[in-house]
Design brief:
5% of the residues lie in helices and 37% in strands. The chain is mainly beta and 481 residues long. The strands form 14 sheets. The chain has a five-stranded mixed β-sheet, with no helix packed on it. A five-stranded antiparallel β-sheet has the order 19-15-23-24-28, with no helix packed on it. The chain has a four-stranded antiparallel β-sheet with strand order 8-7-6-9, with no helix packed on it. The chain is elongated, with a radius of gyration of 28 Å.
């Protein structure tokens, strides 16, 4: 067996003794490798800040052109060890003139190190410190769970990921990366600050504010999508255009998610069209779980202001308004706008919440098209009663307890969309929480001067284009074209 004792320099620059790793060729060799973080002027300093658990380094000796590395080591959070089950091409370096070592960091971040080594037939010694990145840019999303990195993907129409498979070629004195298809998504990898996404090339011709990143989060069911755009033209020290920056960090300082998490639902009887639907009510924190977190806020039709300060939930089902204003949701309260045009951002609470985006209140036709795309031939189903996840066939289902909350579930055969039965505000009271689904559309009715269309469900009835008095306090679900 070959036993390789290794020492690594971590982000704190303190050395840590590492366990022996073995490569099986029947000959003992001591492999001394120093792994370092580069200085602040190095590209890698922008991309790699300290080693984290499950980081990997693949190592080649000399001018190898084989696909499999000579050694793969893995960081377990405290030390470097040989990766179990890794396929290696050979076990001893040559003793020729081409004495240099090459390395790749992780399965996606392609780096190369051309460093002289010494080998006396027993001990191989070299340092991995002169890193040269083969990727153009890495995007780090700070808000994501790094322990679930593989459950996220990110795409940008101006960035090109590495080619499928290995995406690199080991040649005589370098490692070259090959590009995939522009705009395709890449899978996340763990990063000290969150989850990182690595791209092979980037188009820097546009201004920073024109860059939009689309994140898909598969950590829950259904998978949800979020879009990030730049909040300013100045990112990472560049002004106007992106220039040739090597690293981006998505956080509130320079990037923002200007809309809610959403799923794309089929629309209309043919299902040929789609519409983005927020997975949660406006003001909600969860999709389901309990009404105290998933009901969200209640609004009169055409009003962009809440008529209360908060809600007290006695048992996550029964709620009451706290700090009612102007008499609450009362017929005499004209806070709601008479005959307001909700195409005007000043009257659409969703447009006010997400300014400068395509997010808006749904129209009554949007509710009807969603219903028709999902319902199939069986109509409204109040007997199957799904409790979580996806039903066995597309349809519209009443749920007594979908992840603990009553409501209605739309399933278009691909994605699900849940509307909790948040009840409604009338006067000073919150009514029928847990029993009635009432959501405002942006559409006024034509047969009355004081009603508007709404989505209405209970366990027995369905009205995708119901109508109600505009002074009631209903939930709001954002949509985007």
């Amino acid at each position: 067996m070959i036993f390789a004792a290794m020492a690594a320099v971590l982000s704190s620059c303190q050395k840590s003794e590492l366990e022996s790793v073995s490569v099986n060729d029947g000959k003992d060799i001591v492999l001394n490798i120093s792994v370092s973080n580069p200085g602040a002027d190095d590209t890698k300093a922008l991309i790699k800040q300290g080693w984290v658990e499950n980081d990997e380094i693949s190592i080649w000796y000399d001018s190898n052109v084989q696909e499999n590395p000579d050694l793969v080591v893995k960081y377990d959070g405290a030390k470097w060890i040989q990766k179990e089950g890794a396929t290696v091409s050979r076990n001893t370096p040559s003793e020729g003139d081409n004495k240099y070592a090459k390395a790749l960091y992780n399965g996606t971040v392609k780096v190369a190190s051309k460093d002289d080594y010494t080998y006396d037939g027993t001990t191989l010694t070299f340092k991995i410190e002169h890193w040269a990145f083969l990727t153009e840019v890495q995007v780090v999303v700070k808000e994501l769970d790094k322990d679930k990195a593989g459950s996220y993907t990110l795409s940008c129409d101006k960035f090109t990921p590495l080619a499928a498979g290995n995406g690199y070629t080991v040649v005589a004195d370098a490692i070259t990366a090959s590009s995939g298809t522009k705009g395709d998504a890449v899978t996340g990898i763990s990063n000290t600050d969150g989850v990182a996404f690595v791209f092979a090339t980037a188009d820097y011709s546009e201004t920073a504010a024109d860059y939009k990143f689309t994140l898909t989060d598969n950590t829950s069911t259904p998978a949800v999508t979020k879009e990030y755009t730049a909040t300013t033209d100045k990112i990472s020290g560049t002004t106007g255009s992106m220039t040739a920056i090597k690293a981006l960090t998505i956080e509130s300082i320079s990037f923002t998610a200007p809309g809610p998490e959403y799923v794309e639902m089929k629309m209309g009887a043919s299902g040929n069209n789609t519409l983005k639907w927020a997975t949660m009510n406006l003001g909600a924190k969860t999709i389901a779980g309990n009404l105290s977190t998933c009901a969200g806020d209640y609004y009169q039709w055409g009003s962009v202001d809440k008529l209360y300060n908060s809600i007290t939930w006695a048992d996550n089902i029964t709620g009451s308004f706290v700090g009612l204003k102007e008499g609450g949701f009362a017929e005499t309260n004209l806070t709601y706008k008479d005959n307001a045009d909700l195409s005007d951002a000043t009257n659409d609470v969703v447009k006010k919440t997400y300014p400068g985006t395509n997010w808006r209140m749904p129209t009554s036709q949007d509710f009807q098209d969603l219903y028709e795309a999902c319902v199939g031939t069986d109509g409204y189903d109040n007997t199957t009663n799904p409790t979580t996840g996806k039903p066995t066939s597309n349809g519209v289902y009443w749920c007594d307890s979908y992840d603990g909350v009553a409501g209605v579930l739309f399933y278009d055969g691909t994605n699900v969309l849940f509307f909790p039965a948040a009840g409604y505000g009338d006067g000073t009271d919150l009514n029928d929480a847990g029993g009635i689904v009432d959501y405002w559309s942006s559409s006024l009715t034509s047969d009355s001067t004081d009603t508007a269309f709404s989505l209405y469900f209970d366990s027995d009835n369905v009205y995708p284009q119901g109508n109600d008095y505009r002074y009631f306090g209903f939930s709001v679900r954002p949509v985007s074209d």
